[in-house]
Amino acid sequence: MTHPLRPAKPRPGDRMAVLSPSSGLPGLFPMPYELGLRRLHDDFGMETVEYPTTRKMGATPQQRAADIHAAFADPTIRAVIATIGGDDQITVLPHLDADVLRADPKPFFGYSDNTNLLLFLRELGIVSYHGCSVMVELGRPGAMHPSTADSFRAALFTSGPYELTPSSSYGDVNRPWDDPRTFDSEPETEPGDGWSWHNGDQVVEGIGWGGSLEIISWLLMADRAVRAPETYAGNVLFLETTEEMPRADEVYRILRNMGERGLLRQFSALLMGRAKSWSFEQPLGPQERERFRRQQREAVLRALDEYAPGTMAVFDVDLGHTDPQLVIPVGGAIRVDGPARRITVTY
């Protein structure tokens, strides 16, 4: 990706496609979804446009691909955003027409299972944006987190450098979407410890590649949207783990396999998102969550020490499934300044 194509940014008042390329959860949980739609309109000035599968659970891969094509082919649509993630977007990729997506590229926002589409677009040379879903970040109870809103606004409407900053507090404990009381107040947060730097004596700049670690492992197994390792020489890798909360040994094994493939050593730096350490299936207590995050960091460092010992890494960046969330350009420039402890992305 030597000459990335940055789609033209929309303006307030433009039409924005709202798609469910993975799961149709808006049909099951309308409260966070409708709240997210209202904020897109009221706070960001976007006119939202839904498609046949946006609220449909169980839509086929072909139907979801058709919605993606329709959104990109419509000249009045100037940006696209995913409602939420899921677990089978990889089955949509074979049905996508690259020529349709290239003909009128648009900024696409999503994360988690949307790593599939983000990296597919990147392989077409199109810059896209890892972050901000309608149901989670825009549908956050009480109010959008100011850091999330500022990053999303900058990525949506502006071009140029944007400095990421560590959040003074964060949260990853959720409340049920089917309880109206959930939306009466903002989620609880706890103090943040800032970023943790490894080999932070370097200054590097490269094109961003990455997403949710579990999804990348599936893409590698299916040989989808991933090129030869040397293609990514000098790129900046960013990774985060999902609410499925993979164990530290599983995180290590995925990275080990990336190392065995010759992929891990290609990247000039790694930005590792703060680990999601709570879910409804694994409601860990405070000490257990701290231990979970520490063990994941140790697993990542173990893999780096074995396969990319000179690579700079920054841990606990707010770029994934925790709150707040910063938008990362997939295919856009990322500058990591270790001595100054600064990270700057180009939207």
UniProtKB/TrEMBL annotation:
Keywords recorded for this protein, A-Z: Carboxypeptidase, Hydrolase, Protease
Residue ranges constituting the LD-carboxypeptidase N-terminal domain according to the UniProt record: 17-131
Residue ranges with Basic and acidic residues bias: 175-184
CDD domains reported in the protein's UniProt record: Peptidase_S66_mccF_like (cd07062)
LD-carboxypeptidase C-terminal domain: residues covered: 205-335
Secretion signal, residue range per the UniProt entry: none
GO MF annotations, alphabetized: carboxypeptidase activity
UniProt similarity note: Belongs to the peptidase S66 family.
Protein name: LD-carboxypeptidase
